[in-house]
Structures are given as C-alpha cells and as structure tokens.
Design a protein that fits this description.
This protein is of the alpha/beta class. The protein is 27% helix and 24% strand. The strands form two sheets. Strands 1, 2, 3, 4, 5, 6 and 7 form a seven-stranded mixed beta sheet that branches. Strand 8, helix 4 and strand 9 form a beta-alpha-beta unit. The C terminus is likely disordered.
Length: 282
C-alpha cells in the first residue's frame, strides 16, 4: 500500500508541523482493503509505514511540488487528521501525470482534497525520477528582517535586489496580502520556512522591538532544527552596531554595516543566490 495526500493549493506543506487534513476526506479514492482496515479511523499508526506522496490540487498553482516521504505521529484531533512528515525527496507535479494509471488516480481525484490509501507498491520507474532531499525552491529567495529605525539603509539594499528580480519578502510590499490575517502565524511561516535566506539587519533598535525579535526567533528555530553537518547558511546577519541576537550561534559571521555600503551588501546577497542553481533569474 501507499498513501496519496492531495490538499488545497499546496502552500500548507510549507508551514510548520504538525500538518492536518479534514478527517472527512480521509480514505476517499482508497482501495476497499484500506477502507476496511482503517474504518472508523482505526489503526492510524499503520500509516507511518506506508510510502507517502503529498502535493496540492492540480491547477491550483503553476509551480506545484510533489513531496515523497513518510508520515509520523498520526492522530485524529477533533475533525482533523494531524501528522508530521519526514520528506525524503521531491519532484514537479508533471511527474505524477506520467504515472496516472499506476497511481490509480480516479476521475477528478487530482482536483479533490483528500487522503487516499492505494493498493500495491509505487512503480519503480516513478521512484527513479525523484530528486533526493527536501524541496529547496522557496517562495522567497530572501526574507528581510529589520527595525524601522534602520529603514533608510535597508530600503537601498532592497531596491538593488529588486532591480535583479530577486523574490523578496519585504513587509512594506506585503501590506495588502497580510491584511486581515494572523500576523504571528504568517510571519512565523515566512521567517522559518518560506525563504532561501533571511537577511537580518541587527541593531540596538532591532533587539528591543517586538516584531523583529519575533522574526529572529522564527529564523533561529529553523537554523537550530538543522543538524550541524547539514546546517545551511540561512541567516545572513548584518550589524549596525555590536548588538547580539539571542540564540544566534557564536560562530556565525556578520557583515559590518559601518564599513559596507548598501551596494556591497546587495552584491554579497546576489553572490549567495548565484550559487543556488535556478534561484536567481539573469
């Protein structure tokens, strides 16, 4: 058996764990054997041994990603099935179109949010097309964290990055999108999960303000969740003064903003991006 989870536009698979799906959608488009075995949502722990494919509904996004791995800590909480996911590899959604019959995709199934459990094994040919590792094409190439007192310098860096078509999360540009949403939930997802790099402008103002502190904690959580061997240079820290960021590893290299111009900082960021295949459009 294997699991196939299709849900929404796929953006929720970039949010922090645990993930969830409406319990009423569990076992739709599943085999008779699976429906009987998991009837009444019994035996949920058995799902943890099944290879699992997760994606969003077809047509909901032009850059939909398919993730392969295994679920864990599966349980029912109220009207939801809640779980964690250990991603092992990924691919574009186009790959699943080539294996529609082997994956037993029924009519309209790819445009319906649900959790299916299918008979049989995943085709070996399909498995040969996965890209090892977690998906790395982040919605934002750079998420910018700063205090408003330093905006004059920050704005110059941002403008130089905009000129190179870098995908940025820069709060003044996102007021329409953030309007009416839970700011804590949105910023936690953005600074922990949705950026390739977090460009952090540290100062005494930054350290004593609530929202910059919240953003830095989210960014640090991502850094600390990675093993030492696999740690990425996610936080690109720059300092206007000698202020320390709580939780920042002692060996992290800062850029000194008293001697680096905005143009120099922008070029350093661009050099980082150029080393990531496909992340910076020329």
């Amino acid at each position: 058996m294997f699991s196939l989870i299709i849900y929404g536009d796929g953006s929720q698979w970039s949010e922090p764990h645990p993930w969830r799906i409406d319990a009423s959608r569990f076992l739709e488009h599943s085999s008779e054997e699976a429906v009987e075995f998991f009837k009444g949502r019994r035996n949920l722990a058995a799902l943890e041994s099944l290879p699992t494919i997760i994606t969003g509904e077809w047509g909901s996004s032009t850059d939909q990603v398919v993730r392969f791995g295994f679920v864990r800590n599966v349980k029912q909480v109220g009207g939801s099935i809640v779980f964690h996911f250990d991603e092992q590899s990924h691919a574009s959604q186009d790959l699943l179109d080539s294996f529609e019959r082997e994956l037993q995709l029924g009519n309209w199934e790819h445009s319906r949010s649900h959790w299916a459990v299918k008979d049989g094994d995943l085709p070996s040919e399909l498995m040969g097309h996965w890209i090892n590792g977690t998906f790395k094409e982040f919605p934002y190439e750079v998420v910018v964290s700063y205090a408003s007192e330093n905006i004059e310098y920050v704005e110059q860096v941002v403008e130089l990055l905009r000129e190179k078509d870098v995908r940025l999360f820069y709060a003044p540009d996102e007021q329409y999108d953030l309007w009416g949403k839970s700011l804590k939930k949105q910023l936690d997802a953005i600074y922990c999960n949705l950026g390739r790099f977090c460009l952090m402008f540290v100062s005494a103002h930054y350290a004593r303000k609530a929202w910059p502190t919240f953003e830095s904690k989210a960014a640090m959580r991502r850094a600390l969740e990675q093993t030492h061997e696999n740690r990425e240079d996610y936080v690109l820290a720059c300092r206007f003064d000698d202020t320390e960021v709580p939780g920042m590893p002692e060996d992290v290299v800062y850029q000194d903003l008293t001697i680096n111009t905005p143009a120099q900082i922008a070029e350093l960021v661009l050099n980082k991006l150029r080393r990531k295949k496909g992340m910076l459009r020329n």
